[in-house]
Design goal:
Elements: H1 2-41, E1 48-51, H2 56-62, E2 64-83, E3 93-108, E4 115-127, H3 128-135, E5 140-143, E6 146-157, E7 160-169, E8 172-173, E9 178-187, E10 190-195, H4 207-214, E11 216-221, E12 228-235, E13 238-251
Antiparallel strand pairs: 1-2, 2-3, 2-11, 3-4, 4-13, 5-6, 6-7, 7-8, 7-9, 9-10, 10-11, 12-13
Length: 252
Amino acid sequence: MRALRILLIVAVILGGLFVIADRVAVGFAEDEAADKLRTSEGLASTPDVSIKGFPFLTQVVGGELDEVEVGIKNYEASTAGAAGSGTGTAAGKIRIDDLTAQMRGVAFSGNYSSATAASASGTATISYDELLKAAKSEPVQLARGVTAEVVGLSDGGNGKIKVEVEATVLGTKLPEPVSVLSTVSVEGDTVKAHADGLPNLGVQLAEDKARSVTDFKQRIDGLPGGIKIDKVEAAPNGVDITVKGSDVKLVG
């Protein structure tokens, strides 16, 4: 009985040491992966990297991690072709907030210099202030003596974007912006907003002219590891996006 008791004590101690060693190893790996991801993506700050699953060391032996969660507070994605017809901005950057992605089946090299996920999914948000950069332009002439421009975007409720249009008629600015509700969608790597109706500016306008102000689109590419936008939905603080991808390179 005494020998069995000693054996149990030794087993508990060894088990505890293994857990400690496992947690120390996973912490080191998370820090290494975060630093390499920051460098490879040119991030302003170090992202959060969390390696899921236990034990970690047995996953290392197998050369593949079950799941890795990556969190980037502010990510600047590249853009191209932001416009509604007749408006536009040059290719540049757009800030993506609170990007969180779950990477599954992550194969990696021994020194963590490269890591590729079999699949990935996640969420993020584009604020209305950021998206306004795609909609806002110089005032567009809609008819003789009538110009208009988008001056605000906000939550319109029920999954719609509220688009505020400021108009000037015969040299006089309308006292209040006119608003329309728009549906947001994604096509490929481009986020689009399409007005459900046309703004009432007090004059008769051709639909294509009115939509040259109200409708806009923003191409977004260059997301981490080549993940792509899958779905978009208007929300209180901006447009919520869902991302997904396969064979996603975390680093390397």
